[in-house]
Write a structure and sequence with these properties.
It contains 27 helices and 22 strands. The chain is of the alpha/beta class and 721 residues long. Strands 13, 14, 15, 16, 17, 18, 19, 20, 21 and 22 form a ten-stranded mixed beta sheet that branches.
């Protein structure tokens, strides 16, 4: 059913700002073909009106600002969702967010705020990011005829009063933390409160889980409120004390301590009155309300009025606008330069008019409330589709949803490569795909990139943040545990795959019920295209084919997808905190699977990064991992019912790994000489004797793979040990 009815709820808001946003969105929704109803939550009989309205009307969604339908949701939502537009930091709205459930969609105007909700508020059904827009008047006054040089629309909430009410009233411990956070954020005003708190905890070696961090942020939310007021005061004070006058619409500026209060020209009115003043000014000043990934209403309104927007920056602004071309930016780390920036802009009226004109064109063509309404509707439609599936599953009225393929991506400090990898994954031509990103305690920007990806693709991307370092194998185990796909694939965060790869693999897999499907890949290190599973090893497997696969295919797991059933009943498919963990896994798979298919196309690029963990040159690290790999191979494969039929190939693999380890020990511990008495080599010999029975000369796979020199070294070692 194509539901075209929506309900918007007004509420209490300073200067009617948020209600103004809803009116703008309502008009945009009407333009899009929707029927829009309004209710005012400030009315005494609001509950009765809400009940009657929703009883008699079927709404696609109900929308309000900064609020959750506490107590009413189960009664009035029925099959729709509640869409909460959020404009404050989530920590300031802890009590409201914490009662949300799967029927709530929060659309935050700041990407960083949306990322915060995605990580710390798992109770929320879904999260999206849509920046703000602004209002404007149809008639634009010629730039040269404008009455005001600089206008600012906003109140002074007085940082001193906020400190007294919200910081000094904290417990001694929390007040101490708050003071330290304020110090950190004053030193670097581009930091969000969560950034500063993370830094402080890390510096003091304090470990907390996500829930504890979330509660700490809520308790300390006065810090963000204080910093917002402090920065706004600093900016206005710096400008007026330099001799520049500002026409200000907003309360509380008589409290500002400054040298030249006469340069504040206080204006009365808000809404349309202040908007007309913006349209009659050359520069509209903005101080971001601690958005570091969003866009502010004052900026959009200024641009749409043909006025220069002067503002501090955010990642969204930097990605969409150009300083001194369509916007004018200042640096919060250098507030003292703002007066000079204003003077420079006003000194060349033609150039200033050009900036204003370009800002208007960019805003009118991409940043109006209509554009925002379209972005919101896409997010809402996705959320409704997801919630419908959840409800159908819960009611047992629909077939259980299951992705065709789950792709697991372990991530550790991959910020330089992650975007390319994830970009190709989220754009796969296989629509029914599940991407599970597992962050293994990264210390770079990887978590930020991962959360951003999750917010943009909430119904495709799942994210797991491991609370301890597990290595790629352990990260894959976490992903497998929550994977729901019919097939499971793996991708490395520094590699790239063709966007058609998983569709082609899945179609091949279901075409003949294959347990594994393999594709070709390009190996950057050696500049070669490789297809390991040839025609002679495809189809139903016997022990001869299995042996060929075991000895020839190595440990490359990312060029394959695996039937989900292969992982059932296996507690830890991969070994944790090690390298070579994919070697014994892959050989074990080849030893037990029933049927394999192949696609003769190069669809995966295996990138070469010399500094990766798997290429570690430290001897003991390498030795310990080789030792564990040989033990794991023997343990896993010897337990298979068909082990005797594949034993020769498995032992040849053990000999191959053993030979590499011997050569490494000889080169680094024995000065390139084969000598007796080396403890590492002695332990390797014992392990080899325990895990193998065939002779080098009688194992046909050894002769095929190892050269005579390596075989001679193994024989010499046997004599000495």
């Amino acid at each position: 059913m194509n539901n075209k009815n929506v309900l918007l709820l007004f509420g209490k808001t300073a200067y009617d700002a948020m209600n103004g946003y809803l009116r703008e969105l309502g008009a945009a929704f009407v333009k899009m073909g929707y029927n829009v109803d309004y209710l005012d939550g400030r009315d005494e009989d609001f509950p009765e009106k809400l009940y009657d309205t929703t009883l008699n009307n079927d709404y696609k969604f109900i929308m309000a600002c900064n609020s959750i339908l506490t107590g009413y949701d189960k009664l009035v939502l029925k099959d729709s969702i509640f869409c909460c537009l959020m404009f404050d930091h989530p920590a300031c709205l802890f009590e409201r967010i914490d009662i949300a459930d799967e029927s709530v969609l929060i659309i935050h105007c700041d990407l960083r705020g949306a990322e915060y909700i995605a990580r710390y508020c798992s109770n929320v059904g879904s999260v999206g990011f849509v920046p703000l827009s602004g209002s404007y008047i149809e008639h634009r006054i010629p730039f040269s005829e404008r009455e005001y040089d600089v206008v600012f629309t906003g109140s002074n909430n007085c940082s001193k009063e906020i400190y007294e009410k919200r910081i000094l009233t904290l417990s001694a411990d929390n007040r101490q933390i708050a003071d330290k956070l304020i110090g950190i954020m004053k030193d670097d005003p581009m930091l969000m409160q969560q950034d500063a708190l993370s830094m402080l905890l890390e510096y003091n070696n304090i470990s907390v889980n996500d829930r504890q961090f979330y509660i700490m942020m809520a308790r300390l939310s006065g810090v963000e409120a204080y910093m917002r007021a402090w920065v706004r005061e600093e900016v206005v004070r710096t400008i007026i004390d330099s001799g520049i006058k500002i026409h200000i619409f907003g309360n509380g500026w008589e409290k500002l301590e400054c040298e030249h209060p006469e340069n504040i020209i206080r204006m009365d009115g808000y809404g349309d009155i202040s908007l007309q003043a913006v349209a009659n000014s050359k520069i509209s000043l903005n101080v971001m309300p601690w958005f570091r990934g969003g866009f502010q209403e004052r900026i959009a309104s200024a641009m749409l009025c043909g006025t220069i927007a002067l503002t501090d920056t955010s990642t969204y602004i930097e990605e969409n606008f150009n300083n001194m071309e369509d916007i004018v930016l200042y640096d919060l780390k250098n507030i003292a330069q703002i007066p000079e920036i204003i003077k420079e802009v006003l000194s060349d009226e033609d150039k200033a008019a050009g900036i204003a004109a370009k800002g208007y064109e960019k805003a009118i063509n991409g940043h109006t409330w209509y554009h925002r309404a379209c972005e919101m509707m896409e997010t809402i439609d996705d959320s409704i589709s997801w919630l419908t599936e959840v409800r159908n599953h819960a009611d047992g009225n629909a077939k259980e949803y299951q992705p065709d393929v789950s792709v697991i991506v372990p991530v550790y400090n991959a910020e330089s490569t992650l975007e390319n990898c994830l970009g190709n994954l989220v754009n796969q031509t296989l629509n029914n795909i599940e991407i599970i990103i597992v962050d293994d305690c990264s210390t770079d920007r990887s978590p930020e990139l991962i959360r951003s990806c999750q917010i943009q693709y909430p119904y495709t991307v799942k994210v797991i943040f491991s609370d301890k370092k597990l290595g790629p194998g352990g990260a894959r185990n976490l992903g497998i545990a929550c994977a729901t796909g019919k097939y499971i694939g793996f991708a490395d965060a520094d590699d790239i795959m063709d966007v058609t790869m998983y569709q082609k693999m899945y179609e091949k897999a279901v075409s003949d019920d294959y347990d594994i499907v393999d594709v070709g890949f390009y190996k950057e290190e050696t500049d070669e295209n490789i297809l390991y599973v040839g025609d002679d090893c495809t189809g139903l497997l016997d022990d001869k084919k299995r042996s060929q696969l075991i000895f020839g295919a190595g440990g490359y797991i990312w060029s394959k997808i695996f039937k989900r059933e292969l992982f059932e009943g296996v507690a830890q498919p991969f070994r944790e905190n090690c390298i070579l963990e994919d070697c014994d896994f892959m050989i074990w798979m080849f030893g037990k699977v029933r049927k394999i298919g192949t696609i003769k196309e190069v669809l995966y690029v295996y990138k070469y990064y010399p500094g990766s963990v798997s290429r570690s040159q430290e001897l003991m690290f390498y030795y310990n991992n080789v030792y564990q790999a040989i033990e794991a191979l023997n343990l896993r494969l010897s337990g298979l019912d068909n082990y005797q039929g594949i034993k020769e190939a498995v032992e040849a693999i053990i000999y191959k790994i053993y030979s590499c380890a011997l050569n490494r020990c000889i080169m680094e511990n024995c000065d390139s000489r084969i000598v007796s008495g080396n403890e590492l080599i002695a332990n390797l010999v014992k392990l080899k004797n325990k895990t193998t029975q065939s002779d080098y000369d009688n194992n046909k796979y050894v002769k095929l793979e190892l050269n005579k020199a390596d075989i001679d070294i193994m024989k010499k070692i046997d004599e000495l040990y």
